[in-house]
Each structure stands twice: as C-alpha cells, then as structure tokens.
C-alpha cells in the first residue's frame, strides 16, 4: 500500500500548516490536480491518491491520529501469519483434522453442543504488520470478514484494540474472530465444524483451503469515538500486501 509517487513528501510538507486551513486546501488541491494531469493508465492509482488526500484532510481538521501516523499506516504491509486457538464448545480444534481425532471427553462436549444448537466457533487470525518506515504506525481499528467457499459467513470489527507497529520491523497483530454458524450447520454434525477448523488451519498454513479472511484496517480520526477512516480491504495470504 505504498503512497503514489511524490505524495508522501507533499503530505509531510503540510504537517506544519495545520493552523492554516486555506493553505492546506490549496496544497491538497495541487496534489489532486498534479496526479490528475498525469492521467495514469491504471485508474486505481488515481483512486488511491484521492482516497489518501481525503483521509489526510479529515485528519488535519479533526485532530485525531497524526498525519505522520496516517502515512506510516498506509505504508504498512500485511500478511497472514497463522490461525490459532480454534475452539468450539470448549473443544480445542487447532490440531484436529477428523472427528476420529477427538478425545472421548471432546465427543461428549460436541454431542451436547449439537443438542443445544451451539455452533459458536472462535479463533485468532494472527496478522503480520510490516512497517518499513523510520517511524511507528498505529492501528486503531479494523473490520474482518470470513468467507467459506466464496460466501461470507461471519463479520466483525474491533475499535478498542490499539496496536503500535514498530518502525523497520514486523509486528504481530492478533485478530480474534467469533462466529455463530448455527444457520449454516443447524442440520449438520461435528464433522461440519471439524471440516471448518481444518480449513482454517490449512488457510493459516498457506495451503489450499475453502476459507479466506478479508481484513480492513482503520485510522481513528475521532479520538476513540469511532473507527474513523477505512483503508483498502486486504484478502490475507502469506504475501505482504
């Protein structure tokens, strides 16, 4: 998520102009016009440029996270480290590949959960956040969405977890996922849940899987009162992006 050419320097140059709204507006307009005049072949570049400029303007006037942290978070790259702590009804499914791998006590818990129509599954999606800049970045909030065979089966967000991403380093961000899959598995059995857990493990290990996780980081421009500005969503994999 690198900032398009020249924009980083221009954004840094206006940090000292927070008390001069007119100058800021003119500078932001110059940035937009310069990138528009370049007529990039890939319109996604122009769209990203305009998005960054608008977010920058919001932060400058709202007084939330500093512009330097905004720039640093945009420059951060994310990848999937692994998926851990997969649980259902008090059963640790992280290393379970088949129902036959369950202990007798776990089978009893599974039977009781199905009887109670309990298909609540939790796990931790561990995300690598790589900051190649010389200054720290701050992740204030994020959304997540879990897909199974291309269909969205769970969504969530967290606006209370703040993670400092250290400069020139990779920081691990733990993203807890919680999902109630009753509507999907209500006519199923333990095998359905175990298959989901196996797919989550495979996905976390970078092997072929039927699940994917979309991760959307935010920059909090509202002093903790909201998620703030949304950055582009990332479908996590083993490659930094």
Structure, explained:
With 241 residues, the protein is of the alpha+beta class. It folds into two domains: 7-62, no CATH class; 77-235, no CATH class. Helix content is 35%, strand content 30%. It has seven helices and eleven strands. Strands 5, 6, 9, 10 and 11 form a five-stranded antiparallel sheet that branches. The protein has a four-stranded antiparallel sheet with strand order 2-1-3-8. It has a two-stranded antiparallel ribbon with strand order 4-7. α2 (21-37) runs antiparallel to α3. The longest helix is centred in the first third of the chain and has 20 residues, at 43-62. The chain starts with 6 loop residues before the first helix and ends in a 6-residue tail after the last strand. The model is unreliable at 1-26 and 61-65 (pLDDT under 50).
H/E element string? Answer: HHHHEEHEEEEEEHHEEE
Main sheet characteristics? 5 strands, antiparallel
Would you identify the regions where 5 or more consecutive residues have pLDDT less than 50? 1-26, 61-65
- Portion in strands: 25-35%
**Quaternary:** single chain
Q: How many domain units?
A: 2
Count of helical stretches: 7
Based on secondary structure, the structural category is alpha+beta
Gross geometry = elongated
Radius of gyration: 22 Å
Mean pLDDT, nearest integer?
Answer: 79
Strand tally is 11
**DSSP helix fraction:** 25-40%
N-end to C-end Cα span = 7 Å
